[in-house]
Design brief:
Number of helices: 5
Helix content: 40-55%
CATH architecture: Alpha-Beta Complex
Shape: flat
CATH superfamily: Ribosomal protein L22/L17
Strand order of the largest sheet: 1-5-2
Number of domains: 1
Radius of gyration: 19 Å
CATH class: Alpha Beta
Distance between the termini: 31 Å
Order of helices and strands: HEHHHEEEEH
Largest sheet: 3 strands, antiparallel
CATH topology: Ribosomal Protein L22, Chain A
C-alpha cells in the first residue's frame, strides 16, 4: 500500500471512530422490503423512531428496532453518559444488498425455475442535533 493511500485510510478510520453506529448483517429478507421500514425512521428522533418500529406490522421492523437500540447503546458508551430525551437523532441509515442464495424449483416439462433468496445489510448512524447543524 502506498503512503498516500495509507494516510487517507487512517484518516477514514479516525473519522469513523467518532461516529456512533450499528450494523445488521445478512438479514434474510430482500433489500427492497427493508428499505420500506428504514425510510420510515430516517431523520427521526430516536424515541419516536423506536415507537414507530415497535408498532409497525412489517417483519423487518423487529430487526431495525434491535439495531437502533444497539446504536443508542454505542453512543452512550462512547460519550460516557445516558442519552437525554429528544437529544439523539437517526442521522443516516442505508440498506445494502447482501449475498443472494440461488436455488432451483422444479417446473413443468422437466424445466427448473430459478429462485433468488436475497439478503441485506443495514447500517444505522445516530448523533446529536448540534453536530448535524454544524455540517
Amino acid at each position: 500500500m502506498g503512503k498516500r493511500k495509507k494516510l487517507s485510510a487512517e484518516k477514514r478510520k479516525e473519522a469513523k471512530q467518532s461516529l456512533s453506529y450499528a450494523k445488521l448483517m445478512n438479514v434474510p429478507s430482500s433489500p427492497r422490503k427493508m428499505r420500506y421500514v428504514v425510510d420510515m425512521i430516517r431523520g427521526m428522533e430516536v424515541n419516536k423512531a423506536l415507537g414507530v418500529l415497535k408498532f409497525s406490522s412489517k417483519e423487518a421492523s423487529r430487526g431495525v428496532e434491535k439495531l437502533l437500540r444497539s446504536a443508542i447503546a454505542n453512543w452512550e458508551l462512547k460519550n460516557e453518559r445516558k442519552a437525554d430525551n429528544g437529544e439523539l437523532f437517526v442521522t443516516r441509515v442505508y440498506v445494502d444488498e447482501g449475498v443472494t442464495l440461488k436455488r432451483m424449483r422444479p417446473a413443468p416439462q422437466g424445466r427448473g425455475y430459478r429462485i433468488r433468496k436475497r439478503s441485506n445489510h443495514v447500517t444505522l448512524f445516530v448523533d446529536t442535533l448540534n453536530i448535524n447543524e454544524a455540517k
